[in-house]
Amino acid sequence: MRIGVFVCQCGTNIAGTVATDKVAEAALAMRDVLHAETLQYTCSDPGQRAIIDAVQKKGLTRVVIAACSPRMHETTFRRTIGQAGMNAYMMEMVNIREHCSWIHSDIDTATDKAIDLVQKGVARVRRQVPLYSTTVPVTRRVLVIGGGVAGIQAALDIADSGLPVTLVERGPTIGGNMARLDKTFPTLDCSSCILTPRMVEAKQHENISLMVNTEIEQVRGYIGNFEVDVRKKATCVIEDKCTGCMICQEKCPGKAPDEFNAGVGQSKAISIPFPQAVPLVAALRKEHCRRFIKGKCGVCKKVCPADAVDYEQEDEITTEMFGAVVVATGYELYDWREAYPDYGGGQYPDVVTSLQYERMLSASGPTAGHVQRPSDGAEPKQVVFVSCVGSRDESVGRPLCCSVGCMYIAKQAILTKEHIPDSQSYVFYIDIRATGKGYEEFTRRAQKEFGAIYLRGRVGKIYPSNGQLVVMGTDTLSGGPVEIEADLVVLATGFAAARGAGELARKLNISYDQYEFLSESHPKLRPVETTTGGIFLAGACQAPKDIPDSVAQAGAAAAKVIGLLSRGEIETSPMVAAVDQLRCIGCFKCRDVCSYNAIEALELRDGRQVAKVIDSLCQGCGVCNVACPPSVVSLKGYTDNQLIAETMELLR
Amino acid sequence: MSDIVSIIQRVLGDVDLVLGWTATGAGGVAAPARFQTAAEAERAVFNATCVHNLAVHLPRLKDQTVGIVAKGCDSRSVAQLIQEREIDRDRVKVIGVRGLGGSIDVRKIWRFHGYGVPVDARTDSLFIDGKEVDRQEFLRQKCLGCRDMDPVIYDELFEASGSSITGIADAATVETALSETGLGTSLTAAEAMSAAGEDESRPLGELFAKMNSAERRLFWREQYSRCIRCYACREACPMCFCRDVCIMQTTDPHWTGAGVDAGEAEMMQLIRVNHLAGRCTGCGECERACPVGIPLMLLMNKQNQVIEELFGYRAGTDLEARPPLLTFDIKGDSRSEK
User: What does pTM read for this prediction?
Assistant: First the structure.
């Protein structure tokens, strides 16, 4: 065994606190070490060349690099020693920067510690064996979950590259929340005018198969090969036959809440959410249908000219294989009612959410764009906007910023003035967060050109008085309390993760935070990847964000998917768990704790059941190692023997 | 009401063998036995000296259908083994014992009345050499304050009330039984001589609670220095089913050294305790089996108590429960790995 030790100075980052030459000298005295040197910047070209030279001239079989965290340069150095002709895993990085030089000030003790750490690395690398990654063939099909703007964008980008995409949406139409918006900031484009062409394109695209009223039932498999069960919910309408004529909706006697219009106005038990829905197919909601509640009716079936209504329809579960998944489940508005009793808790009809107001402003909304307050249909003259309801509010456990509230308030204040020229808008705000391109100018315009009065402070209470609402707040700039009599109050409600986001994340085995927003793998460097290979994030399912950010992220996710599937096969990490099947007692505790479903049972020829690791599924987390009673599951590259050797070295 | 013999005979109709007891131990004390035929089952007894936890044999009898006579404490081991899928619920028939009122520590009897003295241990009374004595005085330590007198799971119920409990104290019968069957005795003279067993563990527990950490270290050093590394603790434990591949004996990796000294013994026991976290049902067999009287349950009980406080979990009390340390809980507050 011939070990080489390379001690990095990292300029003065390490050499400032650790006497690197002493470390190299001490390393030479360690068992099996026959080469040790210091390098100014090991990761630089000359640094890497020095390693290659030493390996080749001295015939080194193992390398220890004492430098920064392996999170920084492990890949670099694996490639380096690979270039030198060695197995890329016969290398150990010892962190003497983050773990030593940066956190100590005394040179002598820091140097001693660095020597100990190198000793540990040498002990460990002595027990390293060559590791080889395997490859698995990939399924060149992609699943996109969620048909909002992010999902549509990702699906289109991926489909354009030639990969078949299945776009799954649980609602009756794609379009998501963006389809419900009237205008978009800061350009005041008509939201549906820019979105509907994309929706139609998704429908028409030869590589996209659209599945609405469909939810993810179960996910098995791993990067490159996910096996997904999807449930197509029964809507009592045969999709292929329905022509979208809406006669059923017209004649249906069953009233139902209008979810598309955020509860403003009413819909029917059988309905199409809005005229530009894609696909333009009616869906029946059994919980509101007279036939299913009372047992009689059948009007829709009678009037349907296409004979598309089928009351006997049942949920259908199908299974398909996908190579990659993009999750774009979006957001929904935070349900403010319980947390804010002081704002009426939902009892006052004229206190509405921003999305409800959006539908009131929209020409395709229930009032055809005429702003009418819900209580009596009168046109409101005094409109008060309350920002940060359910966001930036520790007292209700929602400290996060919704990131778009400031902007859409400005937009809605402008639109209010355009709809009702003699109206006056008031905006209670905490800070105005307008960081995007053209955003700051836009909020200024709302104030200067459209006369919105901005008051810096929180609203304490809203109560009804003489057919109006009194909004009590503080103006922290003038320092006094403010009371405004309002005809309509619009709450800028924050973002919550879409209903069931956490449940879906668990099915997909991806991480999520306490608000059920899905977690990216690294906040800076891997913002669209999840911790599970082959699953990517797009849009507001990851964190509150606006349309341009969602679209950009969707494009990024699409690029990742295309990159992944452009290769016919995927290389898997060799640092996965391995079972010593001779000694496995078949208790399957490893399988119980594995959160990646990476362990299966294998029957040996003598009939014994033993555990087997599915390499391509294993993420190398090591939980199974701990759960195994006889300790016969180990992680390649982190075997018990290696860890014991390291520990013993430190205890010496 | 059925006696134990007829219950075992009935159960034998459904299973390959039944684990129970005969009275072939010294002084008529019960010894574990397996019954495969109705004729063999004639010799079955149940009395308050049936101390052993027979569940220890179940993992090794996986390929057979097995009936087992189980006290409340033993039934928890059976349940935990089922929970860990080590044995199949459908392949085991549990003859649960109810109304035992605690079992007798014969070592206490032998210490004061001589080894091999005839014992008749019933649920409500105890006769030593034909004379009635205070039963309470000779109960096993773990039976005082027991929370599991009734079986957690059972298919048949054996009511161990005073009249139905079966015990024999006739030395001649024992001799005959022994010569006829050759079924092993479980209690040896060596075991009888070991006086430092479980009967002292509670006073020890109280004593231990008062020690500071240095005193505790010293205490354990002293205890472990007696360990002869016979692995009786492991062999007697129903939850230690790794057997040949137990990490205490592997040399690759070398978790514990091969030497017999206090340090290695301590390492060994700490590993054993850890391996039983959330799995130990507190049956106390390890401590009962220890020939040098190391109070092993002191550590185990402490851990069981912590597990109960942390997770509200007691091993082997609920067939549906998933052991907390064998669960990857994804319902926690956050799985964010940022």
Answer: 0.68
